[in-house]
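pinging the channel bc i need a second pair of eyes. not urgent but kinda urgent?? the chain im working w is below, pasted from the shared doc
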Amino acid sequence: MFGYVLEEAYLQSPKVLTASAIQKKTGISYKTALLLKRRIQIFASEQKENVRDMLYSKLQTEIELEFLKENQRIEFPKRSKTGRKPKTEEANFAEKSALIINADTVVLYSASQRANKGRKRYKHSGSTASIYMSDKLGGKQIGTLVHTIAASNGALILDSVPDQKMNTLGPIIRRNVPERSPIHTDSGYPWLNGIYEGHRMVNHSAHSKDKRYQWARNRWVTKDGVHIQYAEGNHRAIKQAFSSYGYIRPEYSQLYLNEFCFFRNLRVFGLDAIVKSWREKIGVVEARTGVEPDRGQSKPLHSGGKTRRLEAPPASQALRFSPKLKAIIQTTVWISNKKYPPTVDPKNYLSQNIRKLKYSPLSLVERKIKSSFTNEGFLKENAEALQKSKYSMLLQEIDMNDRFWKDPNSIYFIKSKERQYSHVAEILWAELPLNKPISLFRILEKLRIPEVSVYRILRKWKKTNLIEFNTSNVRDRRRPTKSTFIKRKFTKLPGLLYSKRFQ
């Protein structure tokens, strides 16, 4: 029954096979059909890590090939379109790599005015706000925010996330995409510039310079060929497929997303490659052998009408000269009689796996703590390092920042100004590498942020010993001054106050 339902779901993809459809096709009860659906989702979720590893290794291979091409000075093929020739090497960036990654987010089952009990939310904006009810009604998560990582070869990875912040999306992208891989996003990922050399953005809100038109022509695809249509195309398929469910609770969203990903990636990588990757992880090695190790006897083979016996070859030659293809587990257990050590209780196997794969929505209190500008998390992560005397000024600034944001009598326009400075500081912090110093002039040239704001933020960081300053006598032709190199000391930026009032 499981194999039949699995095959039906694969043949029907990208459309989804609901529990009601399983009930109609098989004639079983709805509860049994839902049980089969959950088992398929658990099976698909177990293969997600294999797909991650396969996509990551494929990207690594592409990077190595590009590196070899550059060293051997092999010319890259140009795009053959009449009247369109790339002007520079950077303009031909999209044509260089055979595999390009897109990253974007999409909202499913948003908390509309009807879901919000008829109340409008004037203060909220963006796709994160549309998945939560208003704060007066408890701020419960109603919809699902999905982060999409789509490759140009069709591979897809979906994750259910609570918001679109750097600390939420950054670890997901780092886990799936190598640092030297080309990645295209919209303008909501400026913090990726300091991590990925091949990061390019497209501005969907670009306005036309011609007064006759409102929007620019290149707001979907730039002149350099940067776009996120691989992700956008998957968004349409996801919305169309998930409309069959009617509604999904956020707790079970990751299970349904894993199932959708599995059948999409099955068409890209193939079942053999996914199974091979899974076998390697659990310790299964495919080998040619002539004798089954559980019997320990020679096996008769028929050749040319005569019966002869094939003796078991030595262990060193078993992989080379044996005629039959078997799968040997390193624990000397055969695939036909596999008995793996039980990792979960067999009686509660389904419930335990579902509990592990469930998505945990944030409560209103947790969201407020996460979106606040206080430093409880930073102090816990760096408790040992902050005990040094050189960070005494940093602790004073952190204490002043926390008291300011916790004070209910803080002036509104000062809070607004501090939020703007904090946003600029996060973008600037993302550009600073942790291991090697970077030129300040390059950062200013790349980000195009007002220098007054940048220098004010850097003075605060230098005062609190958050960064290292190194001045070099090497002068740049474009700016005949001493070069300044900066390197950060912490992975995460603490919340500080940057306006004139707190200098």
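so The radius of gyration is 28 Å. and The chain has 17 helices and twelve strands. — does that match what u expected or am i reading it wrong
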